Amino acid sequence: MEARSIRRSLVTIAVGLAMGSAGVAHATNGYFAHGYGTKAKGMGGVGMAISQDAYAPAINPAGIAGMETRIDGSLAYFRPERSLTIDSGKGTMSVDSDSNNFFIPSFGYVQQIDATRSWGIALMGNGGLNTDYPAIENPGCPAPPQSAGNGVFCGGAAGVNLEQLAIIPTYAQQFADGQVSVGVSPIISYQRFKAKGIGAFAFDEQGNPTSVSPQHVSDNGTDATWGYGAQIGFKAEVADGVTVGGSYRSKIRNSDFDDYRGLFAGGGSFDIPSTVGLGVSAEVTPSVTVSADYFRINYSDVDAISNPSTNQAPLGSDNGPGFGWRDINVFKLGAQFETDTDWTWRVGYNRGQNPIRSRDVAFNVLAPGVIEHHFTAGFTKSFGSQHELNFAAMYAPSNSVTGPFDDQGTTAKIEMKQYELEVGYAYRF
């Protein structure tokens, strides 16, 4: 009874902490994270066919079928370094985005029902984006000497902040003597968004409005929305030591960002796109496991993300300009090496497509999610049968896209590189 009370208290505390710091600024595979859970992150993000902790439902809900009762908690330090270079032909202006340091908590809990069934809940940062350009001197801005005449968009300090949290309750069960597992998760999402210093998007050079609601484009504080969706997954052992798995997550339908209905297509609509994935995991030897995943993110589900920025319609309208992101394919590869001294070592590689085309660079100064390559490593140190210390590291080398910034021949280059360190602790009951 006492252990049950402790578990209930830990879940309550974790929910409160996660709600207070909804997953920040991932921007790796587009704006999704490269992986979910410390062990998966150390292996390039794989998890469709290999499930090792209570974070598994964030990748494949079937992964917790029959899993032992456990609690996982982690904290990631994430550092995206973003830069912008604008070349007018007469001179070059370069600026780095501020706000580079983010701390992202995650939590997972699994309760084993019996040898074939478990339920659980995971609270994860689904993804996000952040830019924070300072109010630098901009010779391209109008002459009046107000402070608002500085900055990338001549409106002072400029940028956006998008945060997404996924709350994932899950039920999973094994069938066919444990050879097949199926899991299902309703998903509750919570989003926050804020934009500043981009009021210039709402008017053309003659001062005519280019938005259906110019007062709802920028500088309206933080708006928050809730949404819902679902995910289903399977795992199957197809040969001795070889497992395949897959999952499908529906589009998560969120309420509108009403305070930014003049910015996002469809009057502030900003859902989370659907995803689908398949994977295979093989025990090469009793101590070596190799896994590979294919993952697709359907950004075309969401007009605000996928509409071309060149659309000739007012911002905020049904066919209004968006970020122009295309659907992307992600390939993940990871390996795990177990020793006889309670250590497990991991390495991985994640290759995601860049969703941003050259034509859409001007809009994506705010959301430079151009990362493609991710190199990862990690480990687990077990202490007895109940305690685990987990660690993962990720490095994403610099990638950039160059394209038109205005119709006067000015070009812009957006660039990003990233670092992430995550430490986690697990307790198995």
Q: What order do the helices and strands come in, and which of them pair?
A:
Elements: H1 2-20, H2 38-42, E1 70-87, E2 92-96, E3 102-112, E4 117-130, E5 159-175, E6 180-196, E7 223-239, E8 242-249, E9 253-254, H3 265-268, E10 275-285, E11 288-297, H4 303-306, E12 328-338, E13 343-352, H5 361-364, E14 373-383, E15 387-404, E16 411-428
Antiparallel strand pairs: 1-2, 1-3, 1-16, 3-4, 4-5, 5-6, 6-7, 7-8, 7-9, 8-10, 10-11, 11-12, 12-13, 13-14, 14-15, 15-16
Report the CATH architecture. Beta Barrel
Q: Which CATH class is shown?
A: Mainly Beta
The major sheet is characterized as: 14 strands, antiparallel, barrel
Low-confidence sequence ranges: 9-15, 17-23
Based on CA inertia axes, which overall geometry fits? elongated
Proportion in β-strands = over 45%
The CATH topology is: Porin
What's the mean pLDDT score? 91
CATH superfamily: Outer membrane protein transport protein (OMPP1/FadL/TodX)
Structural class: mainly beta
Number of contiguous helices: 5
Total separate domains: 1
- Gap between N and C termini, in Å? 13 Å
**What does the radius of gyration come to?**
22 Å
Strand order of the largest sheet: 1-3-4-5-6-7-8-10-11-12-13-14-15-16
Find the count of extended strands (DSSP E, 2+ residues).
16
Query: Which bin fits the share of residues in helices?
Result: under 10%
Features:
single chain; 429 residues; mainly beta; Porin; 14-stranded antiparallel β-barrel; 5 helices; 16 strands; 8% helix; elongated
Describe the structure in your own words.
- It is a single chain.
- The relative contact order is 0.17.
- The radius of gyration is 22 Å and the shape is elongated.
- Helix content is 8%, strand content 46%.
- The chain has a 14-stranded antiparallel barrel with strand order 1-3-4-5-6-7-8-10-11-12-13-14-15-16.
- The model is unreliable at 9-15 and 17-23 (pLDDT under 50).
- A hairpin with a 3-residue loop joins β14 and β15.
- It is built from five helices and 16 strands.
- The chain starts with a helix and ends with a strand.
- It is mainly beta.
- The chain has one domain: Porin (Beta Barrel).
